[in-house]
Amino acid sequence: MSIYIKKLSVRILIYFVFPFLLSTFNSLLGTAPAKAETVTDWYVKDFQSEIVVNKDSSLDITEKITADCGDLPDKHGIFRTLPLISKTSDGQEFKTPIELISITDFSDNLLKYSTTKDTKTIEWKIGDANKTVHGVNYYKIKYHVKNAIRTSNADFDELYWN
User: Fold this and answer.
1) Contact predicate 123/115, CB 8 Å
2) Which of 39, 54, 57, 137 is most buried, with most CB under 10 Å away?
3) What are phi and psi of 25, to 5 degrees?
């Protein structure tokens, strides 16, 4: 992994709103993870994110999501929604185009998905409408994000992401 540093003083701000909150919510509250028999909808048991920052201010991201739906009926998969527009702390908006590389399980078997995109978000509906799932399921999503590093500040570079 390499980070191109243009300025002497570099400060990277990483916003992991969805991944951070989901992966640490239980540990921050000191509560035990849910058990399959108490599941009332999908819950995320584990969320791992590997982010490679490239010289061209893009990101290569791999997310590993372990999700559990217990024995609930009519579950087919999960949704993953990402922003296509980010905001800096001073309210400036900028576009962050996203290119999907792959959606697989942890063994790299391709998974079915559909894509919905509007001007502000992209969403992947992961799963097969003709196949129900139960218990723990594993999703690996790889994607490329352009225009992620802000270099307009004279004192530091900034990375804003999800």
Assistant:
1) yes
2) 137
3) -55, -50
pTM: 0.74
HEC letters along the chain: CCCCCCCCCCCCCCCCHHHHHHHHHHHHHCCCCCCHHHCCCCEEEEEEEEEEECCCCCEEEEEEEEEECCCCCCCCEEEEEEECEEECCCCCEEECCEEEEEEECCCCCECCEEEEECCCEEEEEEECCCCCCCCEEEEEEEEEECCCEECCCCCCCEECCC
Amino acid at 122: I
| 138-149 pLDDT tens trace | 999 999 999 988
Using the predicted structure, report yes or no on whether residue 80 has a pLDDT greater than 80.
yes
